[in-house]
Each structure stands twice: as C-alpha cells, then as structure tokens.
Amino acid sequence: MTRTLIRNRLALVALGVLALLLVAAAFSPLLAPDDPAKQDLLARLKPPAWSDGGSLAHPLGTDQLGRDLLSRVIYGSRVSLLVGIGAALLAGVVGAAAGLFAGFRGGWLDRVLMRFADIQLAFPSLLLALAIVGFLGSGLWNVVLVLGFTGWVSYARVVRSEVLSLRTRDYVTQARATGVTDLTIMRRHLLPNVLPPLATIATLHIAAAIVAEASLSYLGLGVPKETVTWGSMLADGQLYLGTSWWVAVFPGLALMFTSLAINITGDALRDVADPKAYRR
Fold first, then answer.
1. Which CATH superfamily is domain 2-27+59-278 in?
2. Mind listing the pLDDT tens digit for each residue in 167-190?
3. Domain map (residue ranges) of the chain
4. N or C end of the chain: smaller count of CB under 10 Å?
5. The whole model's pTM is what?
C-alpha cells in the first residue's frame, strides 16, 4: 500500500500541499505577517512585491481597504478546512449509519431511507444548501450543518451497496447463528470493510464542501462577513479584476490548488484501496 502511494509522485505533491495548508491553518497567528482585519487606507490596492509599486511588507499586495492579502489568505485556510472536514465528518457518520442499517436490515427501512435519498438527489446540492442557509441564517456551524446534511447521500448509497454484498458472507451468517446482535455485527464485521471507500468519498467531499462554502460566502450567505474566507475575498475582489487583479486572483488560486490537491489525494486513496492496484 505504501509502495503504491510512494510511486504516485503527483499524489506526493498533493500531500505536500495539504501538509502546508494544515500547517498554515494551525499556526495562522504565527505565520501571517499582519493582522488580516487591519485596515490601512494609505496602502490600499498595493500590488504584489514583485510588481512596480509593490512592497515586501505586503508580499501578495493589499485589498481595497489596505488589508494584507497574504495574511487573509492564510487565515482563510482555517475556515475552509474547518468547514470541509466538519461537513465530511457529519455526512460520513450520518451516511454510514443510514447505509449500514438500510443494507443490513433491508425491508421497509431500506425503502424509506433510499427513497428519501432519491428525493434529495433530485435537488441540486448547492441550491438545496442555499435554501437551508437562507432559512437557518448564516454562520460557521450552520454552514457545516447544511453541507453535512446535503452530502450524506453519497456515503449512504456506497455503504449500502457494500453491505448488501457482505451480509451474505459466511462469517456474517455464522455470527448471526451464534446469537451475535445486529449492532455488534455491523460494528465488528461490516463497518471495517466499508471504511476504505468511505475514506475516499470523505476526501472528495472535503474538496466539494470547501468549494460550496466559498460559493455561499461569495453570495453573502456563508460565515459572517467579518470572518476571513476565500469566498468573501473573491466577492470583494471581483470589482477590481480590471485594475487590481491580485485582490481576487490569490484567494482564487488558493481555493483551486486546495481543491485540486484534495481531489488528487482522494484518487490516490482510491487506487491504493483497489486490490487491482497491487497487481504488477
């Protein structure tokens, strides 16, 4: 498994990018050169340090209020990772539980859960998230809750399909014959076997949740305006693309490279979890 991952150089680069992102999010106060909310109107719309008129005091330039862009990009990673990981954990727990019960128990429970999943899939996820956030109101934990709720279906369907094939295995039949409870069978025998596909889905869901959070913040329906996010930075910079491109480009690049690195890592995890990957 490790050898397969090491041979994938692109995945190693993606893991390196994610490691840097985690360090930036964890140590933002130490790494950021300035307070991300500090305004300096005399230094507004300063270009990056390598451009004419730029300064090393603001390596990536400043925005329309004179705030340091590098500091804001670094602090924005905290919200993106918190929302992405939080939404993936919530959706994974709910979806895995629903898929386990639906696949193992079957019957009316399976039909009800899967029909509910089909109804939710009929609505575009971002449109559904916009409607729920509009009802609940903006806020960090509301965004995590909404993105977790809209993402559980993928986990449930994959886990259900895996459990349908596993529940007829000999070790499951033997466990039921010896009087082992259904909850114990699901916890000990079924859940460990569905963890690899769950990990792959969770990785891809983190990237999707980060992009969704940026979209909501761009529309003004995400986290509060005073909280630094890449989406709100994109919204602030769209008016200056013709004159001060860096205000929108750098948070956009951070969002793009983060999503790309997470997706590449998810693909690498899928290849590692696939038994065919070990064949030469």
1. MetI-like (1.10.3720.10)
2. 888 888 888 888 888 888 888 888
3. 2-27+59-278
4. C
5. 0.85
